[in-house]
From TrEMBL, chains A, B:
Keywords: DNA-binding. Residues 44-63 bind DNA. Residues 21-81 form the HTH tetR-type domain. One of its GO terms (molecular function) is transcription cis-regulatory region binding. The keyword Signal does not apply. This is Transcriptional regulator, TetR family. It holds the Pfam family TetR_C_24.
Length: 207, 207
């Protein structure tokens, strides 16, 4: 493979491993970086090919269009973060909510490049692709809401507006992708721990 | 004035009133809408002129470059939201924090188009302009931090990590600009009230 502008570390990353063959994965990672850098509309398939160290024609072997690249990045991002939430079980309601917030906020730090594309370019998806992604977003919302609702049912959380609190918790975690900088003051794990503490404070009953 | 794609309501908006003459204000509002829609890099000064119902050459009478339009939008957005926070005084620490969160979150709903440009296109500013905006961001952070610190000093708030809590509060409010939709489930005022409640819960001492 040629040397490109692509962070080689990203190629080894767990999130992208399911994408095969290698060339398709390389293309998808290049697209995520280019979209995050310049925005979806200002990025050409030529930019993506060049970043991936491939010919422009090679893009179309794996993806029909630039939008299909965006859709695949968006699917992968949503499926990965949903899987994190779906994998949480056992413990009491407070432990599950702590783990959920920590994992979801941490993911948005660790995968901030992908997360920015996923969160800020939803409007560029075709209506059909948007509907598929919206369904995954509904599942993420439901899952986070169920962690809070469990604690309310058990009487250990006190939440006036369950939908509102869920919205705020998800929003808090998602915005990490905007401000997070690698090598900054806090690591993804530290952000996860801080946010889990703050959210647990939000839902605890009045003293 | 010609009929354009520009929301005429925006032209009457309080936020933009300080921009004179009218043509410069019209241009700036058009730029904010175009940047929010397509992203800064994909927007041309021709797009902006067309949206403002003016000739491409007219842009350069008021602004030297596309980046100067972005810088002016960014300045206006940061100055307006800082002024909201600076205007809060009187009452006790809890009341001031409630008002601050309500106003800051509400602003990011009401002015979500401007706020998205302001928040997501920081990277496109020149280093000099970026430094000016970063100074305003520091002042916003300090002001929000002081509202929390006042309550800690008075013993009515209990916050383990003051900087971390401030970061989370600002981030929560800013992300409203991403998900808010006019005509959606919650009005800007309702979002402000919900978020003020959640933040007050975050900082209250353990029972």
């Amino acid at each position: 493979m040629t040397t490109t502008g692509l962070d080689e570390f990203a190629l080894l990353d767990e999130t992208w491993r399911a994408v095969t063959p290698d060339a398709a994965r390389r293309m998808l990672i290049a697209a995520a970086h280019a979209f995050a850098e310049k925005g979806y509309h200002a990025t050409t398939t030529r930019d993506i090919a060049s970043l991936a160290g491939m010919s422009p024609a090679a893009v179309y072997i794996h993806y029909r269009s630039k939008e299909e690249l965006l859709f695949n990045i968006s699917l992968l991002g949503h499926e990965t973060s949903l899987a994190l939430l779906n994998g949480i079980e056992g413990g009491d309601a407070a432990q599950r909510l702590r783990t959920a917030v920590s994992a979801f906020a941490g993911w948005h730090a660790e995968f901030h490049t992908t997360a920015r594309v996923v969160q800020y370019e939803l409007g560029a998806l075709t209506p059909e692709h948007h509907a598929e992604v919206a369904e995954l977003r509904r599942q993420i919302e439901q899952r986070m809401r169920s962690f809070i609702a469990d604690g309310v049912a058990e009487g250990v959380f006190d939440v006036g507006d369950l939908k509102g609190a869920t919205l705020a918790v998800l929003s808090l975690c998602i915005d990490v992708a905007r401000w997070y900088q690698p090598g900054g003051r806090r690591t993804p794990d530290e952000i996860g721990a801080l946010y889990a503490d703050l959210v647990l404070r939000m839902v605890r009953p009045a003293g």
